[in-house]
Amino acid sequence: MSGSDETSFRLPKAILFDLDGTLIDSAPDITCAVNELLDGRGLPPLTLPQVKSMIGNGVEKLVERAFAASDRPLSKAGLEEANREMAPIYRRHITRWTRPMPGAAETLARLHVAGIRLGVATNKPQAATREILLHFGMLERLGAIVGGDAVTRKKPAPEALLLALERLETTPQDALMVGDSVTDVEAARAAGVPVILIRGGYSQVPVDELGADLVCGSLLDLPAALNGLRTAA
Ligand SMILES: O=C(O)COP(=O)(O)O
Ligand SMILES: [Mg+2]
């Protein structure tokens, strides 16, 4: 992008990022944790693609899906117990194989320096989210982090986005959501926030088919994608 382009487009005041599959590739550690949990019940491991397809609606749903895929659907009480067990297992794995998605740290730094308020709205629990972002040096760029356990209803409900925007003192009209899945598109629509999807995340459906305002190849393409949103407006 040329220098004149950079000064001519109007940037949003705030950008909210999804976490899993957008800022970080956490599926390998989540797979290890799920498999440790299953192993404890004498169940065989799931593959990385299987677990990837289960991420995005919160850890409780992931555990529910993992047991269902293992032909051992759990009762409500059984699921609660499995979820209690999952939390410390995942905390032991949390940043072993997890890596930032391509361009994540650079893009956050660039947008932060440009004066855009940045936040995270994820279905992942808050404490794990903060720990991962701190580990990868991204926490200091972020003015608001809202995890799935910080709201009554997780994405695709709009709560997490609206709470993050409130903390960033920004209205939905001045904001943008960046994510990897249909959950992010639906949450953004419900919150009245435009949405960009990034390829390479955990969506089971091609991201071009999810009705986002724009799709881009990686987070590094985000400044050019912002320009695209402006010219399309
Ligand atoms: O499902 C999760 O735990 C997190 O998913 P998200 O960061 O993509 O919202
Ligand atoms: Mg995601």
UniProtKB/TrEMBL annotation:
GO terms for biological process: carbohydrate metabolic process; DNA repair; glycolate biosynthetic process. It comes from the Bacteria. Pathway: Organic acid metabolism; glycolate biosynthesis; glycolate from 2-phosphoglycolate: step 1/1. Its EC number is 3.1.3.18. The active site is at D18 (nucleophile). InterPro entries: HAD-like_hydrolase_sf, HAD-like_sf, HAD-SF_hydro_IA, HAD_2, HAD_sf, PGP-like_dom2, PGPase_prok. Specifically catalyzes the dephosphorylation of 2-phosphoglycolate. Is involved in the dissimilation of the intracellular 2-phosphoglycolate formed during the DNA repair of 3'-phosphoglycolate ends, a major class of DNA lesions induced by oxidative stress. Belongs to the HAD-like hydrolase superfamily. CbbY/CbbZ/Gph/YieH family. HAMAP family: GPH_hydrolase_bact (MF_00495). This is Phosphoglycolate phosphatase. It comes from Allomesorhizobium camelthorni. The gene is gph.
